[in-house]
Design brief:
mainly alpha; Growth Hormone, Chain: A; 0% strand
């Protein structure tokens, strides 16, 4: 049966193309973010400047999220994603020019920083649309009975790309410098765009085309609030990512604490990618629909422990191992959360639900970067990381105690119902 085939979704040609598009786009985006982090910290030597990068992206991403979800539910998904990737490419070209000495010759450091923050802000606007569009598009490519399997491969692809991108960024900074590393980013954005054109246009399944914006937004928020499985998963993951955003401080660890330079920075960023890749292999074979609630709680608890170990470590290899297992646990968490969203969300609500997800979880990466930068400024880098990991553990324990229904969450019946529909 298809549900026992770990490669079921991969047997669909367009899904394979989709994974390539997602990998290229996430790789480019995450690589760009780390290159900018490195450049900004190299210029300022101020943790607060790293926090501002996250803040500049999270403000538009959160502010536009619900409106973006409404638009996504009203529009054809492939065409909308094409426009998003074009927007990202323009932003990458802007940063490429901004780091070109011939272009910015005579500019003050403050002017260059303002330019970086401007492009990051524009990127936040684009990202507000990308998350809901990608989430909605994958549901139109694979049949419902393959949602869990597709969620495994899609989430794992995101996880691997989101950490391999920064790892490559660290190495490329050492090899070819910041400026030409951003040229690589532009190349991968073009790769995503070219392959997206190979996917056919998809139907719009929303029966309420032209629905007033406010009414549409209220309906989306009401659905998420009433669906406790979705609300619980989003809240739990949001807090974990928010307080576990230690990776935003990796430039400080690499340069000032572990003293391993840009090459070591690349290794540190690569460690979670290896863990995420292992997750991709394992979760494709082991079903995560049964006892999903306890598995999610366990994964996020493990993530918090890894962050604490990383924060306390002053030995390079221990730090690498801690980040490796943070990738494993974060990958498991992501696969379970995406499976919950796919199985519990009706087709006509996917854009809005994904937008709420981006507000809760997607943007918490950047908000977590801001929180890490702020706490590092106030209490020191190591203390800030340990504090974040501790808050993650407290959140998991509290959720497990006050929400027994979430502990008992099981998606087996939802999966069986979708198989009957197909």
């Amino acid at each position: 049966m298809a549900k026992k085939d770990p490669y079921a979704a991969l047997r669909i040609k367009e899904f394979n193309i989709f994974l390539l598009v997602r990998f290229a786009l996430v790789f480019a985006w995450s690589m760009q973010f780390i290159i900018i982090e490195w450049e900004v910290y190299s210029i300022t030597k101020d943790p607060w400047s790293l926090g501002l990068i996250g803040l500049m992206e999270v403000i538009p991403a959160v502010g536009m999220a619900l409106f973006a979800g409404h638009i996504v539910d009203q529009k054809e998904k492939r065409g909308l994603l094409i426009k998003c990737i074009i927007g990202f490419t323009i932003i990458s070209l802007g940063l490429f020019l901004l780091t070109w000495p011939k272009v910015v010759e005579g500019w003050s450091t403050k002017s260059i920083l303002y330019g970086v923050y401007f492009f990051v802000f524009c990127g936040g606007l684009v990202r507000a649309f990308i998350g809901p569009t990608v989430f909605s598009l994958v549901a139109l490519i694979v049949p419902k009975k393959l949602y869990p399997n597709a969620a495994t491969w899609s989430s794992s692809t995101w996880q691997v790309a989101s950490v391999i991108g920064p790892a490559v960024a660290g190495l490329s900074i050492a090899w070819i410098g910041v400026h030409w590393s951003l040229c690589v980013v532009v190349g991968f954005s073009f790769l995503a765009l070219i392959n997206l054109l190979r996917i056919s246009k998809k139907p719009i399944l929303n029966p309420k085309i032209g629905e007033p914006v406010l009414q549409s937004l209220k309906e989306g928020i009401r659905f998420v609030y009433k669906t406790k499985a979705i609300l619980g998963a989003l809240t739990l993951d949001m807090v974990a990512v928010l307080f576990g955003g230690a990776v935003a401080l990796l430039p400080i660890f690499a340069q000032d604490i572990l003293k391993v330079g840009s090459e070591g920075f690349g290794v540190l960023r690569a460690a979670p990618a290896v863990g995420a890749f292992l997750t991709m292999l394992v979760t494709a074979y082991i079903p995560i629909s049964k006892n999903a609630g306890m598995k999610l709680l366990g994964a996020i608890f493990g993530f918090g422990v890894c962050i604490i170990v990383f924060g306390l470590s002053s030995v390079f290899w221990i730090s690498v191992v801690a980040l490796f297992f943070s990738g494993v646990t974060d990958g498991v968490s992501m696969v379970i959360r995406q499976t919950i969203l796919q199985l519990k969300t009706p087709d006509n609500m996917r854009g809005r639900v994904a937008s709420v997800n981006s507000m809760f979880v997607g943007s918490s990466n950047e908000l977590g970067a801001f929180e890490s930068g702020l706490t590092a400024k106030l209490m020191g880098t190591v203390t800030a990381v340990v504090f974040g990991g501790t808050m993650t553990l407290i959140t998991v324990i509290t959720t497990g105690i006050v929400s027994p229904s979430f502990r008992k969450l099981d998606l087996t019946k939802d999966l069986e119902e979708h198989e009957k529909e197909d």
